[in-house]
Automatic annotation (TrEMBL):
It comes from the Bacteria. PANTHER family: ABC TRANSPORTER I FAMILY MEMBER 6, CHLOROPLASTIC. It comes from candidate division CPR3 bacterium 4484_211. GO terms for molecular function: ATP binding; ATP hydrolysis activity. Residues 2-228 form the ABC transporter domain. Keywords: ATP-binding, Nucleotide-binding. PROSITE patterns: ABC_TRANSPORTER_2. Pfam families: ABC_tran. This is ABC transporter domain-containing protein.
Length: 237
């Protein structure tokens, strides 16, 4: 589904990512852990093709196609979606209008929200943190993507709301074979979505990859991210 090989990315002339290798197959859930400023969001922006995130070397392939030179909208058409950590407010456009314009499939909004008045409000204007996340997920479900990158889905949410979002993601995305990349600093989302593979990023490099997310997260919780440089899984994969 997604294949990244030896990827290096520069932002404002400064190299942020260094030699990233990452492969996500159809239906797999991967988690990318790391402290602030480790390069996690830069990787998300590079996958989406945001301006200013220049590929210095390496490749990004999606579905066997090199997408490194494609514009954002072309990557979206191929089936890549990004959920922002801080979804922007958009005045003058209601959530209902946006869903009507972008949705490739019917979105049964009552399955997401209890208050239908949310649909008539301007996108994310005055929304709570949980409402913003629900708005993002409704939009993503409507797009029918093949791969979704969630940037800090668990940021600013209590466990009750996080559990609710996880149930929606399982029912609307994972059960339909969608691949996920969960970018997280806190790691709370792991207990709800249980990734197949977990990666740890430090200083713009993936230094650890493992299929035992519990052991990796326990190690980080007890010793901090620096301990990952020493653990048995650390291989630079």
């Amino acid at each position: 589904m997604l294949s990244i090989k030896n990827l290096s990315v520069k932002v404002n002339g400064k190299k942020i990512l260094r030699g990233i290798d990452l492969e996500i197959r159809k239906g797999e859930t991967h988690a990318l852990l790391g402290p602030n400023a480790s390069g996690k969001t830069t990787l998300a922006q590079a996958i989406m093709g945001f301006p200013g995130y220049a590929v210095a070397s390496g490749e990004i392939c999606f579905g066997g196609k090199d997408i490194a030179s494609l514009a954002i909208e072309e990557r979206v058409k191929l089936g890549i979606a990004l959920a922002f950590q801080h979804p922007p407010a958009v005045k003058g456009v209601t959530l209902s209008n946006l869903l009507g314009k972008i949705s490739k499939r019917t979105v049964k909004t009552e399955e997401f929200i209890a208050n239908p008045k949310l649909l008539g409000r301007e996108i994310n204007v005055g929304f709570s943190g949980g409402e913003r996340k629900l708005s993002e997920i409704m939009q993503i479900v409507g797009l029918s993507p093949k791969l979704v990158v969630f940037d800090e889905l668990d940021a600013g949410l209590d466990l009750k709301n996080l559990a609710k979002l996880a149930r929606i993601i399982k029912g609307k995305l994972l059960e339909n074979g969608v691949s996920l990349l969960l970018i997280t600093h806190r790691g709370e989302i792991l207990r709800f979505l249980e990734p197949d593979i977990v990666h740890v990023m430090l200083d713009g490099k993936i230094i650890c990859s493992s299929d035992d997310w519990r052991k990796v997260w326990r190690t980080i919780g007890k010793f901090g991210y620096e301990k990952c440089k020493e653990c048995e899984f650390s291989s630079g994969r």
